[in-house]
Amino acid sequence: MQHKCRVTVIDKKCYPxxxxxxxxxxxxxxxxxxxxxxxxxxxxxxQADDFWHMGLGTLAGPGQPGTAGSARLPHCSEAWDAISRxxxxxxxxxxxxxxxxxxxxxxxACCSDGTRPVIFKLERLDYKALYLExxxxxxxxxxxxxxxxxxxxxxxxxxxxxQEGFVEVYLDGDLADEALxxxxxxxxxxxxxxxx
Length: 196
Fold this sequence. Notes:
Blueprint: E1 2-12, H1 16-22, E2 39-45, E3 48-49, H2 77-91, E4 106-110, E5 118-134, H3 139-150, E6 155-161, E7 166-171, H4 177-185, E8 190-195
Antiparallel strand pairs: 1-2, 1-5, 2-3, 4-5, 5-7, 5-8, 6-7
Helix pairs in contact: 3-4
């Protein structure tokens, strides 16, 4: 089983009365680094190791160029300090916050800026990487393989990554490798070389 961590900005707060009283710039306003809806996808698989680059290049949502985590900027250090431990836990397949959240794969956290905090939803995404052989790289076979995998209980998403040579099968729970193999190999000319 492999793991990713999706980080989504779900809210931003601003306390102008505190900024007016305590900040060097009393009109600093809301955080300029993040926008509600920004989504960042962290992974550590193959050549990717987003965690050790503070999320540089992980922006996957509607953020503007220059937004934290974009190709130009890593995450804000205040936010990174608050959320990085949860990202690391998710990437290792651990329970992000067992007993506190109703789903141990999820955590709600915020940065430590007391006058303009940003609130994040962190989600551990579980998947298996299937390396395929045969005709699975043809569009019609890709659709058949996707449909066969999506029909399995617990499969939430199927994503082909042809440049890396594998298919990501996202799971809600665990699913035996043999069930995945049988689903793929039920498609004519398709075989599974390995599953990670």
